[in-house]
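dude i think i finally got it to work??
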Amino acid sequence: MTKEQWTEHMESDGLVAPSKGGSVESWRAACRDHLAKSCRMCQLRSRTLRASRRVKEIRSVYADLGMVRVKGNLGGTYYE
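look at this
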């Protein structure tokens, strides 16, 4: 689920995105309402955000340890 797809989904309810001049408060309230209603699109977006944050955290830990991300010859990624 990309940010653009999710934004289009939220705007289909008549909301205006904050990046397009809409209210931040009403946008956040609508997001909470959608998640509370178990909206499938919003759950997918939430899952995507959690996964990308987890990857960023892992990569920053490896970078702090001085390790470099390397692509392997047989595929896959590892750190040296």
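The first strand starts at residue 69 and ends at 71.
im so relieved honestly
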